Amino acid sequence: MSHLLTISDAVATHARLTPEKLGTRDSRRSLTYAQWDERANRLAAGMLGLGLHTGDRVAVLAYNCIEWMEMYVALARAGLVAVPLNFRLTAPEIAYILGNCEAGALIAGAEFVDTVDSIRDELGGVRGRCVVLGAQAGAGWIGYEDLVAQSSAATEFARVNAEETCALLYTSGTTGRPKGAIRSHAGSTLIALATALEMGFTRDDTALLVMPMCHANSLYFGTTFIHMGATCVIDDRRSFDPEALVATLAQEKVTFTSLVPTHYIMILALPDEVKRRYDMSSVGKLMISSAPARKDTKLAILEYFRNGKLYELYGSTEAGWVTLLRPDEQIVKLGSVGREWAGSGAIRLLDENGCEVADGEVGELFSRTSYVFDGYWKNPEKTTEAFRGEWCSVGDMARRDADGYIWLVDRKSNMIISGGENIYPSEVEGVLGGHPKVKDVAVIGIPHDKWGETVQAVIVLHDGQSADVEEMQAWCRQRLAGFKCPRSVMFIADSEMPRTATGKILHRVLRQRLVPSESVPA
Question: Which Pfam families match (predicted)?
Fold first, then answer.
């Protein structure tokens, strides 16, 4: 597969074919493909000029900005490995990842200089290669723009093979210490081609990337549009602003964006007079992922984005895209995550003995894709756990119906065992989420002397609503077997619900809050 093009090759190709076409932009500046190619060349040369060598890891810590697009391409061109860091991480968490991946350099936004300086003694080889974005370089820092300006645009680079590593993507750590998923250039290209094939993207598309650029969602979709020679608009706001988002969709004539259900709910909650100000006719495709969406939410999305076809995906950093619920299936298979992506391979649901379960029964979901990750960095034990031969799993439990559609049940690691009965939190969350007063909910297991664990529900109510424990328990008793109903219910504010950068609820963090003495497995 060494002949497959990298994103560096793709940008260089489009710089030759359509040099003046808009390649990417954020709120501050824009780049044609020719400009993008030149700046990537300069940055790649500058990074190698710091003494880095092929295969060295370069960590990136920044909010969404156009520089992410430059960095991903430049690091690929130089044969360096990108290690995107979640901007919500604490200093000790950042230090752990930098040490674990043996980073050779760090590029950080100005907002994170103090955080990095606080752990400078732990940075090892990174100390002399800290590059700062968007600020005058202080002591111990190299200016990003200075590095670009002082480097040659005419540098020739060694050919990068497609099998080589392009990125280490550290998981969010919902089940313990973050693990670095190894992704190759070949896998990156193949997932881009599969996405374009399945969803019909072309060079005429304009994508709005809203999800954090450090996350697989934006990286995989961004890579797709780079290969197509399309345009990527980066949403560089620090917090989600629904009106600003729809204004951008209209102004940039965006044809595609990927959001989580919470984003859509916030957009749909805008006053009608606000929504009428903006023309959504350009939006032809929409992705919804990371959490289940209700029927009324999906219908409202389709009503507002009248030309939009709605897709829902299930995937992971490790396996890439696994299933897709297509536009014509959104309502008839509501709650399902769909069937396999075109060209993605196949899916197996296995019991504890590695045998396939029957339709309707719950098993661990394994997928076989052409773009699967290459294992976890420096973690052969977890790599072995993730695979059964060619088949990859991240521990999700699911069932398949008679039509071949996959229904996620829960993360294996989140399963509650009470009195010998397996309880899947997502099932309880789905019932509680159907209560008209409930905005969001998480369900976790709480240790119990007699039953082993009991069910705890943590609920966020819609603004202006009030409810009590008995009301929620009664709602569940009407819809669930008694052993699945929550024994305890807690009401919290939306801002108190711990989430990843993409909006997924961190069940582990909730469990730690409620059972602080419990240790979390590494």
Answer: AMP-binding, AMP-binding_C
